[in-house]
């Protein structure tokens, strides 16, 4: 009869039996079964309020803020408590006359995570910096997301603070600000960041698994006064030229390094003739070929090979106009001038998650797409041994300038992977919201939720910068 009652009544009864009177202090039992004289203080709703003298994490959040921003701290605290979180904050938990440093140490020891309200006053405060440094040292990699920075005013952050991706609340009011706070701490499942271009998109298969598809970047546009099939004809032409070059390299009719064969095969295989292929990856391969050819021509490379490559380059440059989102993506990479670093550690963890849940949730095409994008950022070390290179010869073939040659390939690769992980999170959330999430997809969503926030924060801050 005792256990068959309403669960809340059962828990209240147990708490009263253990405590004896309300509210008060409850002796803790240590692992060896002996009473621990260290105490946990409870409020009238039987929630732990403050842990003294031990390292068990009984509070969800310690709120670190400048006293000049107390009104904002009270607001954030209200959002958290209304959402069911427990908090420690100076304005409500540090008694008058108490030692601030001692109370701060107790609060940091008791809290599971720390929220820092970033502002010019916060950066200028030595006490706030002490709290920040203590929190940062607990989790310097950010993997546990122990430190949750919320930017409440535009602030010139010190170098250490710039290493942690923050959630900006600047300009948000009312419900938008409440949702942003709860998103930052993980109470609300966040949505993917809209307006971010990606070389791949993802779709749900009939098996309730997720596969990679070409996405909007690979959709051709019909130019005015042009044959609607012109883009396809140019794609076919580029494919044929690349295949002819590959056949020539395999037949040893060109006196060039063998690394061109690998790049041309990548180019040919990744032209978006089917939905699973990506014009972005083909474009990267073409740019690699052009850069290597430019270098080799300065040293007296094979003009016959160069002239055939020149035709491929010209056809490909003409292709770009049919894929406007490709140019937009490069503009995005070029304009990403944020001061905070890319969340590379989070990207690494999400890559591991894809590997872990392949093929139960992710089709192999997802990992392959991520791997292709990562490869584009690697420095290529070509073996030029046996390559006939003339000395001080004037090249008879001149290459047209590449309009996007100033793009950092490493930065572009990282930006592409971030955008793809944003899209993966989006489809996982849509599956979850649509009620199609089986247990295995639920596990992926749980894993992703641990690491996706720095990705979403970085993209949000980039779009707003």
List keywords for this structure.
465 residues; 5-stranded parallel β-sheet; alpha/beta; 10 strands; 17 helices
Write up what this structure looks like.
- With 465 residues, this protein is α/β, with parallel strands linked by helices.
- 50% of the residues lie in helices and 11% in strands.
- It is built from 17 helices and 10 strands.
- Helix 9 runs antiparallel to helix 10 (259-270), helix 11 packs antiparallel against helix 12 (303-320) and helix 16 (409-433) packs across helix 17 (439-464).
- The chain is elongated, with a radius of gyration of 29 Å.
- It starts with 6 loop residues before the first helix and ends with a helix.
- Residues 21-55 and 379-395 have low confidence and may be disordered.
């Amino acid at each position: 009869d005792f256990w068959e009652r309403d669960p809340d009544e059962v828990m209240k009864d147990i708490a009263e039996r253990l405590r004896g009177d309300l509210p008060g202090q409850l002796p803790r039992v240590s692992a060896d079964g002996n009473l621990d004289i260290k105490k946990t203080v409870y409020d009238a709703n039987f929630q732990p309020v403050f842990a003294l003298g031990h390292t068990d994490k009984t509070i969800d959040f310690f709120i670190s803020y400048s006293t000049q921003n107390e009104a904002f701290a009270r607001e954030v605290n209200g959002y958290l408590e209304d959402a069911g979180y427990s908090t420690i904050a100076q304005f409500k938990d540090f008694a008058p006359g108490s030692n601030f440093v001692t109370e701060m140490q107790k609060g940091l020891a008791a809290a599971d995570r720390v929220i820092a309200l970033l502002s010019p006053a916060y950066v200028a405060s030595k006490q706030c910096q002490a709290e920040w440094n203590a929190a940062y040292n607990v989790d310097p990699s950010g993997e546990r997301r122990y430190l949750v920075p919320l930017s409440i005013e535009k602030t010139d952050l010190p170098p250490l603070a710039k290493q942690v991706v923050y959630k900006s609340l600047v300009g948000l009011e009312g419900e938008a600000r409440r949702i942003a706070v709860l998103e930052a701490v993980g109470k609300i499942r966040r949505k993917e960041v809209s307006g971010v271009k990606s070389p791949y998109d993802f779709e749900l298969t009939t098996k309730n698994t997720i596969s990679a598809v070409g996405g909007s970047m690979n959709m051709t546009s019909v130019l005015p006064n042009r044959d609607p099939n012109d883009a396809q004809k140019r794609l076919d032409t580029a494919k044929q030229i690349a295949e002819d070059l590959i056949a020539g390299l395999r037949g040893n009719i060109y006196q060039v390094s063998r690394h061109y064969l690998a790049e041309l095969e990548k180019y040919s295989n990744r032209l978006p003739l089917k939905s699973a292929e990506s014009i972005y990856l083909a474009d990267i391969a073409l740019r690699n070929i052009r850069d290597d050819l430019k270098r080799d021509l300065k040293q007296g490379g094979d003009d016959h090979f160069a002239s055939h490559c020149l035709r491929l380059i010209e056809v490909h440059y003409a292709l770009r106009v049919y894929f406007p989102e490709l140019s937009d993506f490069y503009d995005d990479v070029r304009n990403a001038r944020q001061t905070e670093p890319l969340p590379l550690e989070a990207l690494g963890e999400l890559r591991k998650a894809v590997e872990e849940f392949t093929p139960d949730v992710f089709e192999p095409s997802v990992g392959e797409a991520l791997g292709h994008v990562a490869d584009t950022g690697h420095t290529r070390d070509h073996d030029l041994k046996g390559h006939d290179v003339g000395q001080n010869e004037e090249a008879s073939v001149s290459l047209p300038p590449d309009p996007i040659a100033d793009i950092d390939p490493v930065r572009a690769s990282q930006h592409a992977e971030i955008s793809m992980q944003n899209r993966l999170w989006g489809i996982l959330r849509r599956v979850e919201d649509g009620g199609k999430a089986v247990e295995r997809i639920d596990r992926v969503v749980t894993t992703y939720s641990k690491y996706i926030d720095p990705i979403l924060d970085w993209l949000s801050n980039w779009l707003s910068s």
